[in-house]
Design brief:
The strands form 2 sheets. Strands 7-6-5-8-9 form a 5-stranded parallel beta sheet. Strands 2-1-3-4 form a 4-stranded parallel beta sheet, sandwiched between helices. α5 packs across α6 and α5 packs across α11. Helix content is 38%, strand content 13%. β5, α6 and β6 form a beta-alpha-beta unit. It is globular. The longest helix has 21 residues. It has 336 residues and is α/β, with parallel strands linked by helices. Bound molecules: phosphoric acid mono(formamide)ester. Phosphoric acid mono(formamide)ester binds next to α2.
């Protein structure tokens, strides 16, 4: 595999390989000197046509922890604002000998266009394209769930999948590349996924996705769940009214204080609450839920660096192209 464009195309073997490698990479983050020499002399370009905090910063941290040279490109303030095309931008990067291009774009399909156009030779990693896909977000979510699931069962997470885990993804599925990428990856890893949303915020064709669909958040909670993933209401992508009011949305679809208490009442003491960020506190999630001991929001951000280190390392080292038997990450004792 040369590029990471979506989770739909990711085999179970490659997904487990990335998660296992991320586990090794997480050890680097706990060292005093958080650096490996693995990508010394390689150049990673962060090409962001859309705003980002977590993804852009964690890709930069990941590349730097692997000793790569990093070029950060933001469409704002670049020649893109003068009308430069994706092709010309890509070829400019090619002329600078980029080895990997991490791209976030408002247009679904832009990373695939970059990867398959022949404009550049670099490995392409999709950092979120339109409403289509956000594969490294799904991988860091799976990494977070896998650590929790392994702890509960008292078994090692390395090599494990999510078989038997019940995951509920709630909210603005229509505009969510995070939901799409999670549904495909979680299915590949053996989890049981239920999407919970108002009918207006579900995409056409959702009945063909490998998951169940519910319109009733409380009934789905009552049935039992191991991870609740709340989605951001993406107001910036909405060109119509999808729900009557924010107050009604919060009451019907938000993870509020009452639903947080309901987890205790249902004796679901190990259920975690996830959110990819950025959060609309008070809308899809209450502050009490976001800051509770069940919340994995900050763990997800932390795990994002390890997962992105793994993706960069495996793609640039060529390890992803081989049949995986064991990880060959350079020893974390290697001098940097
Ligand atoms: N989860 C996520 O993609 O966050 P950013 O938009 O801040 O990168």
């Amino acid at each position: 595999m040369r590029h990471l464009l979506s989770t739909e195309q990711l085999s179970r073997e490659h997904a487990i390989q990335i998660l296992d490698t991320a586990q090794e990479m997480s050890a680097v983050g706990e060292r005093e000197i958080k650096k490996l020499p693995a990508l010394r002399g390689r150049t990673v370009v962060n090409l962001f046509f859309e705003d980002s905090t977590r993804t852009r910063i964690s890709f930069e941290a990941a590349a730097k922890r692997l000793s790569a040279d990093v070029i950060n490109f933001s469409a704002k303030g670049s020649s893109v604002s003068k009308g430069e095309s994706l092709k010309d931008t890509a070829q400019t990067l090619e002329a600078m000998s980029a080895d990997a291009v991490v791209i976030r774009h408002w247009a679904s399909g832009a990373p695939a266009r970059l990867a398959n156009s022949g404009w550049i030779d670099a490995a392409v990693i999709n950092a979120g394209d339109g409403t289509h896909a956000h594969p490294t977000q799904a991988l860091l979510d799976a990494f977070t769930m896998r650590a929790h699931w392994a702890k509960l069962s008292g078994t090692p997470s390395v090599g494990a999948d999510l078989t038997g885990m019940r995951v509920m993804i709630v909210g603005d599925v229509l505009h969510s590349r995070v939901a799409r990428s999670n549904v495909w990856l979680l299915r590949t890893l053996g989890a049981h996924v239920t999407l919970v949303a108002p009918p207006t915020l579900l995409p056409v064709g959702v009945e063909h996705w490998p998951c169940e669909v519910s319109y009733d958040l409380d009934a789905t909670l009552d049935a039992g769940v191991d991870a609740v993933m709340m989605l951001r209401v993406q107001a910036e992508r909405m060109n119509a009214s999808f729900f009557p009011s924010t107050r009604e949305y919060a009451r019907l679809w938000g993870f509020d204080d009452a639903r947080l208490a309901r987890l205790d009442a249902l004796n679901l003491k190990d259920t975690i609450i996830m959110h990819p960020g950025p959060m609309n506190r008070g809308l899809e999630i209450s502050s009490a839920a976001a800051d509770s001991h069940r919340s994995t929001v900050l763990a997800q951000v932390r795990n994002g660096v390890s997962v992105r280190m793994a993706a960069l390392y495996l793609l640039l080292s060529g390890e992803m192209r081989q049949t995986h038997t064991s990880s060959t990450v350079p020893s974390v004792k290697d001098p940097s």
